[in-house]
Amino acid sequence: MRPLFHPAIEDIQPEAILYALSDPERAAIFAWLAGAGCGGTCSALADLGDRTIPKSSLSNHFKVLRESGLIRSERQGVEMRNQTRCAELDERFPGLIKAILTAYGQLPEQWKVD
Predict the structure, then answer these.
(1) Helix, strand, coil share of the chain (percent; to 5)
(2) How many domains does the chain divide into?
(3) Does any domain span residue 4?
(4) I need a labelling partner for 39 at 20 to 30 A (CA). Which of 18, 33, 47, 107 fits?
(5) 3-38 tens-digit pLDDT
(6) Residue 73 domain boundaries
């Protein structure tokens, strides 16, 4: 099996993040993962919002999120476990992820400041 590509934090570019989160489905997937804290599997996110995302589209969304540096994926048996790299990204690009998710209206509850 081919190893998964995860860019080093210093190689992540803001235009890759903006491209990855320009798709509303990918932004929703990323927001869900960011809110979950412990990450999630690809199959757990197939029914996001008001429609079911086909497996092939879901795989592509995760690939774009992973290769842009937004998530880290790890194989566990037959499933893929995904976690955000929010802490690393916020260190490199302070406030960028929060601003994008706020613009979509998908900022996770634990990120909201009273």
Answers:
(1) 50, 15, 35
(2) 1
(3) no
(4) 18
(5) 888 999 999 999 999 999 999 889 988 988 888 765
(6) 14-104
